[in-house]
Design brief:
Elements lengths: L1 H10 L1 H10 L3 H29 L2 E4 L10 E4 L1 H24 L10 H17 L3 H20 L4 H32 L4 H7 L7 H18 L8 H7 L2 H30 L2 H24 L3 H16 L2 H4 L5 H36 L10 H4 L1 H15 L5 H15 L4 H24 L14 H15 L5 H8 L10
Antiparallel strand pairs: 1-2
Helix pairs in contact: 1-3, 2-3, 2-5, 3-4, 4-5, 4-11, 4-15, 4-20, 4-21, 5-6, 5-11, 6-7, 6-11, 7-9, 7-10, 9-11, 10-11, 10-13, 11-13, 11-15, 12-13, 12-19, 13-15, 13-19, 15-17, 15-18, 15-20, 17-19, 17-20, 18-19
Membrane topology: Multi-pass membrane protein
InterPro entries: CPA3_Na-H_Antiporter_D, NADH_UbQ_OxRdtase, ND/Mrp_TM
Keywords: Cell membrane, Membrane, Transmembrane, Transmembrane helix
Length: 490
């Protein structure tokens, strides 16, 4: 009974909050959403504790088991991402409640879109079959497009339309792959398809389906060179929206791609495909970091940093294909920590950047002159988040990259170490560039706007979580490893 209430709270309550907020203006929607955020955090924490104690399980909505009903996969990894979503989305929602001006009539739609996005994320983390993952992904993408366009001018509309076209193209490729899989196996269950693959003689159809789904998901995740839509969308959106997009939205499509690869890759993949995807990820790390160093606008620096950090995630593909179990496990653990660490750090960085823009009244990096003297708090949060992106100890980024380095050595793929080291050095370059601009002396009196304390505390707390993630990595990874069948590590 308790489990049923927790699952209802995760999937249906956000939809109820969304519908309710549609009937309210921004200020009343803010009050309802603060209550809703509190409920969602408690429900997410409750489910995480339940899985940590008793292990994972399958849950049929309405008591209908698969294949007639919708079956949800509730394991350690899923509940960890659910809790991460509650923390990051809750922080972004609280930040937006103060950051966004209530007198803008368009902002009343922020809360409904925010809750639809949260519901889509929970649906992706818990989805157990290919089509329900698609439904969650579409709800997520359409909500994100609306949030990008919200309250902006022509540039925001242009960026949101580009995002929409990329999302639709990615969805079409993914859905076509789903149709091919269903035609081949007669089921959409990921576990069911994985069990049938070893018995299948002709793998051309499933292989084509896998290629289509991964291509569509790579576009939605903005993997190089399919990243052109991301910097305009993340850069032009309001800072709380940018934080949601970078920290959570692009992770959802990667999460699906990673699950498909880990379930189907050993049958449908090849070394060439794995190395190609890893190579695109490595190129994203170098190219995205280089472009981040060259941007003149603060949020564009952070946006191109997202392109680079996404690249690290796709090293999962070569580091888990045709390697030892030890190397594969290290890669999976490292990648999971990278996702969590990046979500916390990038949310903190975008929120801190929004505070700095609000304080200076300028989007330019050069406009930060004097900030270190008059507004050190948000700059400090930005720097702490940068420590994790650089992979310096004791941050979560350091623990993640250390595990990826070990996996590279254990699998004999030393060239990925070059990517890890070069990416960290380039990350340091663009973070220190922001600090260099902020330490330029500013003559005259303090004419900066000083944001409310609540706006500055939120990114600081997220940055501290990312910084201290390595200190709690072991218990966190032990929960992530809990499987469905026994509650033990797979």
């Amino acid at each position: 009974m308790i489990t049923a209430w927790l699952m209802a709270g995760l999937l249906f309550t956000p939809l109820a909050w969304a519908v309710l907020c549609l009937l309210l203006d921004f200020s009343r929607g803010r009050l309802v959403s603060c209550l809703g955020i509190t409920v969602q955090v408690l429900v997410s924490l409750g489910l995480w504790v339940a899985v940590a104690r008793e292990g994972g399980f399958l849950y049929g909505l309405g008591g209908w088991e698969a294949p007639l009903g919708i079956e949800l996969r509730v394991d350690g990894l899923a509940v960890t991402f659910i809790l991460l979503t509650a923390i990051v989305a809750g922080a972004c929602g609280l930040h937006a409640s103060v950051y966004l001006a209530p007198d803008n009539a368009w902002y009343r739609y922020f809360w409904p879109l925010f809750w639809f996005l949260w519901a889509g994320l929970n649906g992706v983390w818990l989805g157990g079959d290919l089509f329900n993952l698609y439904v969650g992904l579409e709800l997520l993408s359409l909500s994100a497009v609306g949030l990008v366009a919200l309250g902006g001018g022509i540039n925001a509309l242009r960026a949101s339309l580009r995002y929409l076209l990329a999302a639709l193209l990615g969805s079409m490729a993914y859905l076509l792959g789903v149709a091919l899989m269903y035609g081949q196996f007669g089921t959409l269950s990921i576990a069911g398809i994985a069990s049938l693959l070893p018995e299948t003689q002709a793998l051309v159809g499933p292989g084509m389906a896998m290629a289509l789904m991964l291509s569509g998901l790579a576009l939605k995740t903005a993997l190089f060179p399919l990243h052109g839509w991301l910097p305009p969308a993340h850069g032009i959106a309001k800072s709380p929206v940018s934080a949601l997009l970078s920290a959570l939205v692009v992770k959802a499509s990667f999460y699906i791609a990673a699950r498909l690869w880990l379930e189907f890759g050993h049958e449908l993949g090849s070394t060439a495909v794995a190395q190609l995807i890893g190579g695109l990820g490595g190129a994203a790390v170098i190219w995205g970091s280089w472009l981040a160093c060259r941007q003149s606008q603060l949020k564009q620096v952070v946006a191109y940093s997202s392109v680079a950090q996404i690249g690290y995630l796709f090293l999962l593909f070569p580091l888990t294909f045709a390697v030892s179990d030890t190397a594969s496990l290290q890669a999976q653990q490292g990648m999971t920590l990278q996702v969590v660490s990046h979500a916390l750090a990038k949310a903190a960085m975008f929120l801190a950047a929004g505070n700095l823009i609000l304080a200076t009244g300028s989007h330019q990096v050069a406009g930060l002159a004097g900030v270190s003297h008059f507004l050190p708090f948000s700059l400090f949060s930005f720097g702490l988040a940068g420590v994790s992106l650089m992979g310096m100890p004791p941050s979560g980024g350091f623990a993640a990259k250390w595990m990826l380095l070990q996996a590279s050595l254990a699998s004999g793929q030393w060239w990925w170490i070059v990517v890890l080291v070069a990416g960290s050095l380039l990350s340091a370059a663009y973070v220190f560039r922001i600090y260099q601009a902020s330490f330029v002396a500013k003559t005259g009196v303090d004419d900066f706007y000083h944001p409310p304390g609540s706006l500055e505390v939120i990114p600081l707390l997220l940055a501290l979580m990312s910084l201290g993630l390595a200190l709690v990595a072991e218990p966190l990874l032990s929960v992530m490893a809990l499987s469905l069948e026994t509650g033990g590590a797979p």
